[in-house]
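Record now logged underneath.
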Amino acid sequence: MGEKVAIFSPQTFRFFRELGRNNHKAWMDVNRERYRAHVVEPLRALLDALVDDVRRLNPEFDVSGRTGANLSRINRDIRFAADKSPYRTQMYLMFSDQRAKEGDDGQLYVGVSPDTLTAGFRIYGQGRESRLARTAVPRALEHSAWLAQQARHLGKKYESYWYSTEKGAWTKHAGWPLRPEEWKRLKGWIVRRRVKPARATRPGFPGEVARIFRELFPLYEFTSAAKWKLRAQLREISTRGRDRSDLSPLRMTS
C-alpha cells in the first residue's frame, strides 16, 4: 500500500488570501492554473476520498463531481449586489441527495477559505415549499427534546449558529436553535468544526472529515429525510457508547 499524500497544501490557502487582495478578472486570468491545481483538483481528490464514506451514510448522495451539485461556484452573481467583486474567496465541497432540487436539501460539506477550513452540516431554505419549511421545522417543533440532546452531545465539539431574516437582511444568531419561536424564524442552520490549515494539510485529513460527517449525519436525517424515526436515532447513539438513560424522556415516535 502506498504512502498517504496530503490533499490540501499551504498553496490552497495562499491562493484565497491573494485573491482577496486582487479580486478582479485580470488577476484571475493570470492565476487560473493555480486555481485549478491548488483548489479545484484538491476538492475533487477529497470528493474521491470520501465517496465510499458518504455513500454508506446515504446511497442517494450525489457524488457526480458536477459544479453546483458537489462543487460550489467561485464566480459571484453581482448583477444586484452592492459588492461587485467577481469572485468568492471560499469554495465548498457538498454532499446532498441527488433527487432533491439544487439547494433544497441539507448538506454535509467542507469549506476552504483564506485562513481556515470548515467541515460540517448545513441547511438553508426560504419559502413554504422548501425542505427546511416542509420537513425540518415541523419535526423540530415536535421533537425539541431530541434537538436538546444533540446540543448536549455535539455542542462541545462543534460550533452551531443559525440565520433569520430581519427587514430583508440575513441576521446571524449564535448557538443551537432549540425554542419553537427560533425555528419559526429560521432560514438557515449550520453546525461545523473549524480546522486550521496545518491540520487540514495532513495526509489523514479525509478520515477526519469522514468522522465529522458520521457524527453530524443524524442532523441531516432529522432536517431532510422524508422518513425519520426517533427509535432508530436512539439506537444509533446507543451503539456509539452513549447512556440511553439520558434519553428516556423522549417519545418513541416516527
Q: What stands out?
A: The beta strands are 91-95, 107-112, 117-124, 159-166, 169-174, 188-195.
